[in-house]
Amino acid sequence: MSASEKIKEYKNALRVGWFLAYRQIRHAGKGTTSLIIFIMVLTFLNLVVVSGLLVGLIAGSFQQFREGYSGEVIITPAPGRSYVENSAPLISYLENHPGVSTVSPRHSTSAQILGTLSDLPEKNERPNRIGARLVGIDPGREEALTRFSRFVAYGENLRPDQEGYILIGANLLKKYSSFADANIPGLDLLKDVDVGSRVRLTITLTDGAVVRKDFTVKGVLKSKIDEVSARIFITDKELKRMLPINQEQFQEIAVRSDYARAPALVSELKEFMGSHAALIQTTDQAIPSFLRDIETTMGILGNALSSIALVVASITIFIVIFINAVTKRKFIGIMKGIGISPQAIQFSYVLQALFYGLSGSFLGLILTFGVLKPYFNAHPINFPFSDGILVATPDGAAVRVIILVVVTLFAGYIPAKLIVRRNTLDAILGR
Questions:
Q1: Which of 65, 357, 389, 417 could form a disulfide with 405 if both were Cys (CB 3.0 to 4.6 A apart)?
Q2: Three-state DSSP class for residue 206
Q3: Contact 329, 422 (CB under 8 A)
Q4: What b-and-e string marks burial along 64-98, b requiring 16 or more CB atoms within 10 Å of the CB?
Q5: What are the transmembrane regions (predicted)?
Q6: Residue 191's beta-bridge partner residues?
Q7: CA 91, CA 2: separation in Å to the nearest integer?
Q8: How far apart are CA 36 and CA 39, in angstroms?
Q9: What is the 3-state secondary structure (H, E, C) of 68-99?
């Protein structure tokens, strides 16, 4: 048989198989068909949603880090340096850059904070004091970049025209910290400090000089971002007056831009800085590598769990097609007897399996991108360390659709092949 004749034969088999599949699906029980499609929908959701939620636990913390602290680009001092060199020209460049929407430069230094000013500690009692990172911010700039006021859980936010006030992260206070009831060696928390309390900041300068100043706690910050909940904040103007340094020497510069353009912006900034030293990173580069490893591990775990659902779905399709073919052995034998090719019969069962796989995938896509993803974006899962979201992309979903359809086709082809290859006369006589 020539190649053209073989192609023609397969075309005819496919056409007849399509007709037979259409007839069988149309006359099949609606309950059975709906149940099979429902199983395929659940399988698709297992493939996409389970791994998406596991990865979303870590991706949610990355998103919070970007939106609540770093922006799309974060600039910090180069290793061995205490400030970002060439800060003033760099900020001016950023403020006039068309791809930058907001810039928030920050001063920061190490400080000691004393929570009890009226009573001295008793003998052998540790003073009510802890060390923390002190950050000086411009409240207006910070609000524009991170919506900083949303982190003020108790009290009020800082105002540029006020002095003598401080904001303290909740994880530094025994009353509000998530770790207050944990007996962790070396973990010190401020006791009896709340909104309205008086505290004393102590800063030790590089030359050994000590600067002290009393502040009133104006607010308590609560966030799942450590750079917010484990720091203390005052206005940058007040911190500048406390530190005898060049007022344009910043320790952090957060930049808000388009997420997709961030790598290109980093390259431009490095070129602009030239010989001046600074660590310029996208928010993804600034995230510690161990968190990336956790994200990868979560993805592997999600795929492992999803593969179990895929096996269950393939077995389900195999059983459905096999039972359907077995119960119609006589019918299959008669079709073969009147001249319908075995390939056409096999195609009919494979197309039925394809129908179930595509229908389940289509409904799964609607549920994932039309219902579940918008829902989890609006209502993230409240975990102690992050707000979990559903990570699902069109490209990733397309790959899973292909996997599900391919597995379904094999699950439909194998039982059809086993039944059709039987002797025609035996099939007709039920032997």
A1: 357
A2: coil
A3: yes
A4: bbbbbbbbbbbbbbeeeeebbebbeebbebbeebe
A5: 35-59, 304-326, 347-372, 397-416
A6: none
A7: 74
A8: 5
A9: HHHECEEEECCCCCCCCCCHHHHHHHHHCCCC
